[in-house]
Amino acid sequence: MEFEKEQEFEWIKAQKIEISLDLAAAAKKQLHFLAAVDRNRWLYDGHTLQRAIYRYNACWLPLLARYHEGEISEGPLVVPLDCEWIWHCHRLNPVRYKSDCEELYGRILDNSNVVSSVQGTCTRQTEEIWTRFYPNETYDFDLTKASSENASETVPGLEKHTNYDLISAVKRQSPFFFQVSRAHISNDIFIEEAVARYKGFLHLIKRNREKFIKRFCVPTYDIDLIWHTHQLHPVSYCKDLNKALGKILEHDDTDSDRTKGKKLDVGFSGTTKQWEETFGIRYWKAGAMYRGSSPSPLTAIPYIPEILTKEVDATNESAKIVKLPELRVVEVLLEIVGVKNLSDEKKGNLFILFSKTQPDVFFNTKKKLTILSESGLKQVASFQCEPIGELLFELVSHSASNFPGTKVCKTLGTASLSILEFLVPVSKLALEKWLDLVPISGHGSSKPIGLRIAVSFTVPTIAPHVLHMVRPRPFLKGSCFQLLLAGRVPAGTGCTRVVDETHAEVIQLEMRYIYIYIQILCLLETLCLPSTYCVLL
């Protein structure tokens, strides 16, 4: 009990760390901005990225310096999207950004009275200022100009520019949005808890500095989102971190190797252990963990198609509205922490079987988890389910039987946790508590067996529909278009159905073979390829 009070005291101390800005509101703005960048993926690579870096060095930073020096009285400034993205990545190396600004402009160039381009603020005033200083450079990014290389306009040719490798910085930051792009991330409660956890993260680093412990602390993605948000306000970040830690905390994003035993893996395991020992609460959190590698962008360079006008049927007589069933889903992270009041005769190799009393389309099975206090190994289950029903826990003991090579499994008791009660209304997204098990036999001891569970949820969100393209029958030989000679094109159509998770047909696509053959034959003639060439789908 005394140790638990010490852990609570440490958490209270962590929450007293002072932050000089509203991190929750700023984090939501960052998510909005990252979504806009991800819709303009030409900012991730190629000549367009290089052009954005040039404009950032040649135009935006000098303009921002003039503004902070009082040479520009109008405001606020609205930063162009491309410049804002490069500025974003530069600031996420706070120590380097500070030194670059001080070396080039004599001060930290802060974002005070600067508005993001995605907030809908009128840009006319900033455009006029921009044109006054850069008459030959448009305020909005010129894709045509960016696509044509201009050797005379390069960053090294500028009088003032940072030597920081901004291309590599962009490459490192581009996958981040995928990790924080799900709907639950912007929920008020999730964000507020993330701010509290960020303060806990800073408190661990402070303790390590005070005790001269060298540890590479690795954040979960909710904490990392708030950490990024803080860094994007460089003056506040420097002031707050100097006060809290006595130094500006560096942000090392150069390690991405998550292989077991590598720096990132070892650091995350060490941070988890220290967090749980210091605060007595779980570090892993539903909706805040690594999702896996981000999918590759569909295109790096924007494609501007030729737009063909078409008359629209104003009567909507041929329109058919397809209504798909709406399901809500939560992500769950579950860990079995300990067990108590277990008599000697019931002890053995223990584990937990958990399931849902009301199985759903996302979770309809029974899974096994070890108990941390018994095995000494941290095992966490991550799954999705509908926010209905209860989680059911069965404590199972298995021991050797009288028959060689076999074991006897015995269920010692069960307990349940209502998901709906926990989430309606949503007040907090994590819970750690003892549950009393109901014995199977009905004749339990004076003290019921206790099971300590740690569970976290995301807020319920609308589940995305997963639509699969299926082929009801083989489409020509070898899953390809076999192009025949002119005059031998078969007539008719082929159908592709779109079905939902229940295999119900949602959309049926009809493809006319003769149109495909003609189009591809024309293409092959243009490319001087034989008409029997096989094009893989």
Can you walk through the features of this model?
Helix content is 35%, strand content 19%. By secondary structure, the chain is of the alpha+beta class. The strands form five sheets. Strands 3, 6, 9, 11 and 12 form a five-stranded antiparallel beta sheet that branches. A five-stranded antiparallel beta sheet has the order 5-4-7-8-10. Strands 13-15-16 form a three-stranded antiparallel beta sheet. Strand 7 and strand 8 (407-418) form a beta hairpin. Helix 1 (2-15) packs across helix 10, helix 2 (23-38) crosses helix 11 (221-231) and helix 3 crosses helix 4 (81-91). The N and C termini lie far apart (65 Å).
Brief characterization of the structure:
It contains 16 helices and 17 strands. It has helices at 2-15, 23-38, 46-68, 81-91, 94-105, 124-133, 143-147, 166-173, 176-179, 188-210, 221-231, 234-245, 263-279, 372-375, 419-423, 513-526, and strands at 77-78, 114-115, 328-340, 349-356, 367-369, 380-385, 390-400, 407-418, 430-436, 438-439, 450-457, 461-462, 468-470, 480-482, 493-499, 505-512, 534-536.
- Quaternary organization: single chain
Strand content: 15-25%
The largest β sheet comes out as: 5 strands, antiparallel
Low confidence ranges: 477-491, 513-518, 520-526, 528-537
Estimate percent helicity.
Answer: 25-40%
Look at the structure and give the mean pLDDT: 84
Estimated radius of gyration: 29 Å
- What is the tally of beta strands? 17
Molecular shape: elongated
Number of helices: 16
Kindly name the structural category: alpha+beta
Kindly report how far apart the N and C termini lie: 65 Å
